[in-house]
């Protein structure tokens, strides 16, 4: 259905009253297919909601590790801060219990951006 709407010209970056885009909701719910469709049609990967949360932060809060990896591979910013000042360090800490391999990927990406 989402793919049909996008093909019909639906704007991928429209937000609800809380500032959540379709990409934010897809990341929050862990929907890999919808995320790919949205990104392939121009959705902004680092779009923020009213709290400053990006799709990357939302996916990490919900422990959707496959979505976190996908967003990082597609260029999600790990240094962008939300309204509380949380960034890749917070994302990394949230993931630390779940996956050492993924946390290494997050830290490596964060450090590469600082060089």
Automatic annotation (TrEMBL):
Record-given protein name: Ankyrin repeat domain-containing protein 27
Keywords: ANK repeat, Repeat
Coiled coil start-end: none
InterPro entries: Ankyrin_rpt, Ankyrin_rpt-contain_sf
ANK repeat start-end pairs: 18-50, 51-83
Single GO BP term: protein K6-linked ubiquitination
A single MF term (Gene Ontology): ubiquitin-protein transferase activity
Presence of keyword Disulfide bond: no
Record carries keyword Repeat: yes
Any one GO cellular component localisation term in the record: BRCA1-A complex
SUPFAM superfamilies found in the cross-reference section: Ankyrin repeat
Species of provenance: Penaeus vannamei
Highest taxon, organism lineage: Eukaryota
